[in-house]
Amino acid sequence: MYNFTPYSALTGGIIIGCSVVLYFYTTGRLAGISGIFANALTSKTNKTSNLLFLLGLVIGPLGYFFLSSAPVKFEITNSYILIIIAGFLVGLGTRMGGGCTSGHGICGISRFSFRSIVATITFIITGVITVFILQQFGIYL
Amino acid sequence: MSEKLFSLLSGIIFGVGLVISGMTNPEKVIGFLSITHNWDASLIFVMGGAILVFAPFFYLMKNKETSSLGFKINLPQKKDLDKKILIGSSLFGVGWGLVGLCPGPAVSSIALFQPITLIFLIAMLVGVLANKYF
Question: Which of B2, B5, B9, B13 best probes binding to A when mutated, by most A CB atoms within 10 angstroms?
Answer without folding.
Answer: B13
